[in-house]
Write a structure and sequence with these properties.
Number of domains of chain A: 2
Largest sheet of chain B: 5 strands, mixed
Number of helices of chain A: 13
CATH architecture of the largest domain in chain A: Orthogonal Bundle
Radius of gyration of chain B: 22 Å
Oligomer: heterodimer
Helix content of chain B: 40-55%
Organism (chain A): Nonomuraea roseoviolacea subsp. carminata
Strand content of chain B: 5-15%
CATH class of the largest domain in chain B: Alpha Beta
Number of strands of chain B: 15
Keywords (chain A): Cell membrane, Membrane, Sugar transport, Transmembrane, Transmembrane helix, Transport
Pfam family, one (chain A): BPD_transp_1
CATH superfamily of the largest domain in chain B: Periplasmic binding protein-like II
Strand order of the largest sheet of chain B: 2-1-3-14-6
Largest sheet of chain A: 2 strands, antiparallel
Protein name (chain A): Multiple sugar transport system permease protein
Helix content of chain A: over 70%
CATH topology of the largest domain in chain A: MetI-like fold
Distance between the termini of chain B: 39 Å
CATH topology of the largest domain in chain B: D-Maltodextrin-Binding Protein, domain 2
Radius of gyration of chain A: 24 Å
Family (chain A): Belongs to the binding-protein-dependent transport system permease family.
Structural class of chain B: alpha/beta
CATH superfamily of the largest domain in chain A: MetI-like
Shape of chain A: flat
Number of helices of chain B: 23
Number of domains of chain B: 2
C-alpha cells in the first residue's frame, strides 16, 4: 500500500524526460492499473474525505461543517479509548508473535528438525483459515459453559478464569491473532533466511562459530529487512483489528463495547448510528495515524539497515 | 436461527399516536406527484393493479411469507413477486437505508420491526399508507401493533405479527424441585433463589443484558422512560416503573441468579433443553422457536401469564414483532399495497398462522380454532389462550425513541456494565440515558 505510489513515480518521471518528444507508451502500460487503482483506491478515499466535511442529522438534514468532524474526533474519548486499546495490543501482541515466528523460522532453517516441511505447513495452516471462522472456532473453545474451557473445568474440577471476561478479552483476542499470523510471519522470515548464501555458514563454522553465534552474527542481520516488513504489516493489522472483536461480541456483548477498536467504532457509527460522515472521519484519522506510525518505523528500520 | 433471533433481540412496540406529529404532519407537500396519483387509490384501483399485473420485489426474512407469496401468485397469475431475504433486522435496514439514499435498487415492500419503524417514518423513507385506505383498517389489528405502525397522522406499515409477553417455563425443573410457578415477580425471585440453591447448575433464566427485554420489562412495570412529541424527545429512566424493575432485577443480577448465557447462542439452546435455563419471559412468537430449536425440551415446556408486579394484576407488554412497509420511491406502490393487504389482512394471515406465526389480527386471535389449538410440544396445552390473553393486557402509552435502533446498539456499552462489574442497573440505565440523549442532540432532536 505504501510502496505502490513510490514504485509508480520514477517510471513516470523517466517517460517525461525533457528534450524528447513526450511518449505515452509508459502510460499505456500502467494505464489499466492506474484506472483500477483510481477507481478502487483513490476514489473511495476522496469520497470519504468529502463525506467527512459534512454532518447529516435525522432532523435538519446535511450541513457543511468543514473540520468540525475532525475536531470532534480528536476530542472523542471513545475514539481514544479504542486507539489506546489497539496500541496496547500492538506493543504486547506483536513482539510475542514476531518472536515466536522468528523461533519457528530459525528452527525450520536449522535443518535439524525432523519433518521440517510438515512442521512448516502445520504452523502456516491457521493463516489459511478465514479470520471469521478462526474467531468462531476460538470463541467456542473459550466458552466456560459448553466450550473447551468448560470441559476442562468439569474434567479437572477447577475453575479457570473466563477468557471472555472484560479483563481477559483483549488477551484472548491476542491469542487468536497470534495463532493466525505466526505462520504467515514465519514464512516471511523463513524465505529471507533461504536467500542467505550457505557458504557463509560454512565459513563461520570453519572459523569455529557455534550455531548460536551463527544465528546472532549472520542470520539475524540477514533478517532485518524481513523483520521490518513483518513489523509494518503487524502494525497495520493491529490498528485495523476488527473481525475477532466483531465475532466474539455475540459471546461477550458486555466485554466488547461498540468502540472496542477504531475500526469497530467506525463500523458501529455508520451501520448502527447512521453517522456516515463521522464514521468516515474516524476512519481517516485512524488511517493517517497508522500511516505515520508505519512510516516512522520504516524510516528508522531503513536507517539502521543502511 | 438468524430469522428468529432478530425478533427477540430487537423488540416490538406500541407507539403513541402522537409520535412525530410535527415531523410528519405535513405529508401533503412531500412527493406531490406520487401523492396526488395515489391519494384516491380505492379497492377498485388495487384490483385494477392486480389485474394489470407486473412484478414487485419484497424484502423480508419472515419464513412463513414464502407460502404466502406462492399462494398470491397462484391467485393473481399476472403478478410476479420476488421474495428476497436481504438480511435480518439491522442488516436489512442498512441495505434499505443505502438504497433509499442512493435512490435506486429499492424493493417495493420491506419488512420493518415495530421498534425501528419510527426511524424510517421520520426519515420519510417509507410511504404513508392512508392514501391506500389503510386508515379504514381500524379494529382489524390488536391495539399494540396497530399503534406501532402509526406516526403522527400517518400509517407507515401493516402489522404482520406481534409479541405479547408470557412466562415460558420448564415444568420438569419446577416439579423436580417442587417449586410453584411464580405469579408475581416477588415469587419469581424467590423461585430463582430456591432453584439455584437446589441445583447450582440451574438458573431461573438467562440474561446478559438485552435492550429489548429490559425495555419490555420496564413497559410492563408501568415505566415510560421515552417521551416523544414530534422532534421533542425526552429520556428519563428515573421514573417509578423503571425503579420497580431495577430493584427487582438487581437482586437476580447481584445474586448471580441469572445464567450468563447470551440469548440465541448455542449454549442458550442447550440450556433450554437440559434444564439449565428454567424460564423465559419472552414474546408470543417463541413457541415455534422452541419447537424447532430445542427438540430436547419437547413435552417439558409450558406457558403461563407473565409474572405481575402486584398479586392479581393483569399487565403485560410487547416484545418483538414487525410490519410490512412500502419504501418511498417504490416503483409499483398500488401493487405493493395489494400484496400487503393480502399478506397481513386477508388470506395470507391464515397461511402464516398455519405456519406458526403469531398474528396481529383480531379476527385470528379471537377465533376458537386458533385459541383451542393444542400444542403437543407443550404437553397439549392450549398455549394460544394464554398468549392471546396477554395480547389484550398490554399496558398502553408506551413509546420507543425515533432512533431506537441506535439506542439498542449501545445498550451493552452502558447497562451491560451492570452484568460484569459493580455498577448497578439503575446507574447503567442512567449511562444509557446519557448516551441516547447525546445522540439525540447530535441528530438535531430537541432533548428535554
Amino acid at each position: 500500500m505504501v510502496a505502490t505510489p513510490q514504485a509508480g513515480a520514477p517510471s513516470a518521471r523517466r517517460t517525461a524526460s525533457p528534450g524528447r518528444r513526450r511518449s505515452w507508451t509508459g502510460w499505456r502500460f500502467v494505464g489499466p492499473f492506474m484506472a483500477v487503482f483510481a477507481l478502487v483506491f483513490l476514489a473511495p478515499i476522496a469520497y470519504s474525505v468529502y463525506l467527512s466535511l459534512f454532518r447529516t442529522q435525522l432532523i435538519g438534514g446535511t450541513t457543511f461543517v468543514g473540520a468540525g468532524n475532525y475536531v470532534k474526533a480528536l476530542g472523542d474519548p471513545q475514539f481514544w479509548s479504542a486507539f489506546g486499546r489497539v496500541a496496547l495490543f500492538l506493543v504486547v501482541q506483536v513482539p510475542i508473535m514476531l518472536f515466536l515466528a522468528l523461533l519457528v523460522a530459525l528452527a525450520i532453517d536449522s535443518g535439524r528438525l525432523y519433518g521440517a516441511s510438515f512442521f512448516r505447513i502445520a504452523v502456516f495452516l491457521p493463516y489459511a483459515v478465514p479470520a471469521v471462522v478462526a474467531a468462531l472456532m476460538w470463541g467456542f473453545m473459550y466458552g466456560t459453559r459448553f466450550g473447551l474451557i468448560g470441559n476442562l473445568n468439569d474434567l479437572l474440577g477447577v475453575s479457570l478464569p473466563d477468557p471472555l471476561s472484560s479483563d481477559l478479552i483483549l488477551a484472548s483476542i491476542g491469542n487468536i491473532v497470534t495463532w493466525e499470523f505466526v505462520g504467515y510471519n514465519m514464512l516471511i522470515l523463513y524465505s529471507a533466511l533461504r536467500v542467505v548464501n550457505p557458504s557463509l555458514y560454512e565459513a563461520a563454522e570453519m572459523d569455529g562459530a557455534g550455531q548460536l553465534r551463527i544465528v546472532w552474527a549472520i542470520k539475524l542481520p540477514a533478517l532485518r529487512g524481513a523483520l521490518l516488513i513483518a513489523t509494518i504489516f503487524s502494525i497495520i493489522g493491529s490498528f485495523q483489528l476488527f473481525n475477532e472483536p466483531a465475532i466474539l461480541r455475540d459471546l461477550a456483548p458486555n466485554a466488547i463495547t461498540t468502540y472496542f477498536t477504531p475500526n469497530y467504532y467506525a463500523y458501529s457509527l455508520s451501520f448502527r448510528g447512521q453517522q456516515f460522515d463521522y464514521s468516515a472521519t474516524v476512519a481517516i484519522v485512524m488511517g493517517v495515524i497508522t500511516m505515520v506510525i508505519a512510516y516512522v518505523v520504516q524510516l528508522r528500520g531503513m536507517r539502521k539497515g543502511a | 436461527m438468524t430469522t428468529t433471533r432478530r425478533h427477540a433481540l430487537l423488540l416490538g412496540a406500541a407507539l403513541s399516536v402522537s409520535l412525530l406529529a410535527t415531523a410528519c404532519g405535513s405529508s401533503g407537500d412531500t412527493g406531490s406527484g406520487t401523492a396526488a396519483a395515489t391519494r384516491s387509490a380505492s379497492a377498485d384501483d388495487l384490483q385494477a393493479a392486480l389485474d394489470a399485473g407486473g412484478s414487485i420485489t419484497v424484502w423480508a426474512w419472515e419464513p412463513t411469507l414464502k407460502q404466502v407469496v406462492a399462494d398470491f401468485q397462484t391467485k393473481y397469475p399476472k403478478v410476479k413477486v420476488n421474495l428476497v431475504n436481504a438480511g435480518t433486522g439491522n442488516d436489512q435496514y442498512t441495505a434499505l437505508q443505502n438504497a433509499v439514499k442512493a435512490g435506486s435498487g429499492l424493493p417495493d415492500v420491506a419488512q420493518i420491526e415495530y421498534y425501528a419503524l419510527p426511524q424510517f417514518a421520520l426519515g420519510k423513507a417509507v410511504t404513508d399508507l392512508t392514501a391506500f385506505g389503510a386508515d379504514k383498517l381500524d379494529g382489524t389489528f390488536t391495539p399494540g401493533p396497530w399503534n406501532s405502525v402509526h406516526s403522527g397522522s400517518g400509517i407507515y406499515g401493516l402489522p404482520m405479527d406481534s409479541g405479547p409477553m408470557a412466562l415460558f417455563y420448564n415444568k420438569d425443573v419446577f416439579d423436580k424441585h417442587k417449586i410453584e410457578v411464580p405469579k408475581t415477580w416477588e415469587e419469581y425471585i424467590a423461585a430463582a433463589k430456591k432453584l439455584h440453591e437446589a441445583d447450582p447448575k440451574a438458573y431461573i433464566t438467562n440474561d446478559v443484558g438485552d435492550a429489548g427485554f429490559t425495555t419490555s420489562m420496564i413497559w410492563q412495570a408501568g415505566g415510560k422512560p421515552y417521551k416523544v412529541d414530534g422532534t421533542k424527545v425526552g429520556v428519563d429512566f428515573s421514573d417509578a416503573g423503571t425503579q420497580k424493575y431495577t430493584a427487582a432485577w438487581q437482586q437476580l443480577v447481584s445474586g448471580k441468579l441469572v445464567a450468563p448465557i447470551a440469548s440465541w447462542s448455542d449454549a442458550w439452546y442447550k440450556g433450554l433443553g437440559d434444564g439449565t435455563i428454567a424460564t423465559l419471559v419472552i414474546g408470543a412468537w417463541m413457541p415455534a422457536n422452541l419447537e424447532t430449536g430445542v427438540k430436547a425440551g419437547a413435552g417439558k415446556w409450558r406457558v403461563a401469564p407473565m409474572p405481575q408486579w402486584e398479586s392479581g394484576g393483569k399487565a403485560s407488554s410487547e416484545n418483538g414483532g414487525s410490519s410490512l412497509t412500502i419504501p418511498e420511491g417504490a416503483a409499483n406502490k398500488k401493487l405493493a399495497y395489494a400484496f400487503l393487504k393480502y399478506a397481513n389482512v386477508d388470506e395470507g394471515v391464515r397461511t402464516r398462522v398455519d405456519g406458526g406465526a403469531f398474528p396481529a389480527t383480531t379476527a385470528q386471535l379471537g377465533s376458537p380454532e386458533f385459541k383451542d389449538k393444542k400444542f403437543p410440544y407443550f404437553g397439549d396445552q392450549q398455549v394460544n389462550q394464554v398468549l392471546a390473553e396477554s395480547a389484550g393486557q398490554v399496558v398502553g402509552g408506551w413509546s420507543y425513541l425515533p432512533y431506537q435502533v441506535y439506542a439498542n446498539s449501545v445498550f451493552n456499552d452502558t447497562v451491560g456494565k451492570a452484568y460484569i462489574s459493580g455498577t448497578t442497573l439503575q446507574d447503567g440505565l442512567k449511562a444509557w440515558q446519557d448516551a441516547t440523549v447525546k445522540y439525540g442532540q447530535e441528530q438535531g432532536f430537541s432533548m428535554q
